């Protein structure tokens, strides 16, 4: 009689262990890991963005100063009632302004292209390393309407990306 | 007397630490330097382009120049010539080795010539070395034009180290602002620990 009881007890014990194991497995499968990254913060916090911007800044500032000089030259020409020169300088100013605007737009486009070309594989690598299933990019355009910070890994990604950038692969 | 003892102990300590450095024969030494696990070769893969940055210690350079044979007189002479400089090789290729990066994605011979002109005459301005927080511009630059015989391009670049530095001993970062393949700034950091771990060449 006692033997039967022990057998039953053992049977229940084994069943409990198996059930527990199955429940744990299902639970872990259901825990899909998600992260939210602030794309604007990531872009601005990435050291390569700052480096590229500072390199282009010098060139764009020089162009901007040339434009300022043209304005002053036109003012002097007008003060001296030299309308012909004033018109010529104004034309030069309009041309320089369009060149500057164009250069500014091109610089922005080029920096965007280069930075995201580098960040996309880094995000993929980061996701794989952290075992994430989905990374949502919040950019203030409405893709993420509310984020309480629980899933926010922006600063982790920025640190990870900068480390890769500074050290090289 | 106490001072003398201190000096003797200090010199003994230096000699002891030097003797602790691993000595290697030519073949093993070259293998060590070329192995990226030892931190003297950095590889960055960006958008299908592979950029290899190889730091070249003086012994390595001389071994390559003397094609593996070691003539101790020439060795010492050449080493003193190289003192105070830092040398690197930058190799650029497509990861699949399908075509030279110079020819990848071009639509005309003009595009090729723009790239060739850049690497022959302009790229040196886009490379710098930050040694112990001091930014250095190259003093020697060579683009090895292989006329598309191999699917990779090689740049050899050298820098004068700041005054007082006989050989690279501190952390340094080589930086290449690529303006042709639109990959941005590519950095390669060589830590002082990895530089200190470089074995001595047995000859």
Would you give an account of this structure?
The complex is a heterodimer of chains A (169) and B (203). Chain A contains five helices and two strands, in the order αβαααβα. Chain A is mainly α. Chain A folds into two domains: 31 residues; 135 residues, Protein Binding, DinI Protein, Chain A (2-Layer Sandwich), CATH 3.30.910. Chain A has a two-stranded parallel sheet with strand order 1-2. In chain A, α2 runs parallel beside α5. Chain A is rod-shaped and about 120 Å long. Chain B has 203 residues and is an alpha+beta fold. Chain B has six helices and eleven strands. Chain B has a five-stranded antiparallel sheet. In chain B, strands 6-5-9-10 form a four-stranded antiparallel sheet. In chain B, strands 1-11 form a two-stranded parallel ribbon. The radius of gyration of chain B is 20 Å and the shape is globular. The two termini of chain B are 38 Å apart. The mean pLDDT of chain B is 89. The interface between A and B is medium-sized, with 16 and 17 residues.
* Rg of chain A computed from alpha carbons, rounded to a whole number of angstroms: 31 Å
Oligomer: heterodimer
Q: Strand sequence of the main sheet of chain B, in spatial order?
A: 2-3-4-8-7
Average pLDDT across residues of chain A? 87
Distance between the ends of chain B = 38 Å
Shape of chain A: rod-shaped
Which stretches of chain A are poorly predicted, pLDDT < 50 over at least 5 residues?
none
For the sheet with most strands of chain A, the description reads:
2 strands, parallel
Which bin fits the share of residues in helices of chain B? Answer: 25-40%
Q: What is the N-to-C order of secondary-structure elements of chain A (H for helix, E for strand)?
A: HEHHHEH
- Radius of gyration of chain B, CA atoms, in whole angstroms: 20 Å
Distance between the termini of chain A: 69 Å
Number of strands of chain A: 2
Envelope shape of chain B: globular
Biggest β-sheet strands, sense, barrel of chain B: 5 strands, antiparallel
Continuous helix count of chain A: 5
Give the helix level of chain A as a range of percent: over 70%
Percent strand of chain A equals 5-15%
CATH class of the largest domain in chain A: Alpha Beta
């Amino acid at each position: 009689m006692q033997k039967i009881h022990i057998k039953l007890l053992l049977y229940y014990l084994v069943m409990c262990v198996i059930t527990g194991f199955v429940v744990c497995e299902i639970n872990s499968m259901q825990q899909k890991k998600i992260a939210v990254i602030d794309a604007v913060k990531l872009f601005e916090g990435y050291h390569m963005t700052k480096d590229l911007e500072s390199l282009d800044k010098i060139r764009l500032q020089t162009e901007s100063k040339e434009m300022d000089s043209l304005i002053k030259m036109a003012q002097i020409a007008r003060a001296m009632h030299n309308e012909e020169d004033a018109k010529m300088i104004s034309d030069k100013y309009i041309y320089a302004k369009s060149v500057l605007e164009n250069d500014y737009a091109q610089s922005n486009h080029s920096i965007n292209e280069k930075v995201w070309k580098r960040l996309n594989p880094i995000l993929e690598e980061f996701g794989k390393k952290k075992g994430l299933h989905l990374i949502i990019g919040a950019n203030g355009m409405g893709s993420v309407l509310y984020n309480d910070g629980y899933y926010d890994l922006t600063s982790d990604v920025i640190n990870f990306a900068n480390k890769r950038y500074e050290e090289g692969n | 007397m106490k001072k003398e003892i201190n000096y003797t102990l200090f010199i003994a300590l230096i000699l002891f630490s030097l003797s602790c450095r691993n000595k290697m024969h030519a073949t093993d030494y070259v293998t060590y330097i070329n192995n990226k696990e030892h931190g003297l070769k950095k590889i960055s893969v960006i958008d299908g382009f592979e950029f290899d940055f190889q730091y070249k210690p003086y012994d390595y350079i001389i071994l390559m120049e003397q094609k593996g044979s070691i003539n101790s007189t020439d060795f010492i002479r050449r080493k003193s010539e190289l003192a105070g400089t830092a040398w690197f090789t930058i190799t650029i290729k497509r990861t699949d080795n399908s075509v030279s990066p110079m020819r990848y994605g071009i639509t005309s011979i003009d595009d090729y010539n723009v790239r060739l002109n850049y690497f022959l005459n302009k790229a040196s301005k886009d490379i710098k070395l930050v040694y112990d927080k001091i930014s250095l511009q190259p003093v020697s630059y060579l683009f090895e034009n292989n006329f598309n015989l191999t699917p990779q391009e090689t740049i050899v670049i050298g820098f004068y180290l700041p005054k007082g530095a006989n050989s690279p001993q501190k952390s340094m970062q080589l930086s290449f602002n690529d303006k042709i393949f639109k990959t941005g700034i590519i950095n390669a950091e060589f830590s002082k620990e990895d530089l200190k771990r470089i074995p001595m060449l047995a000859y």
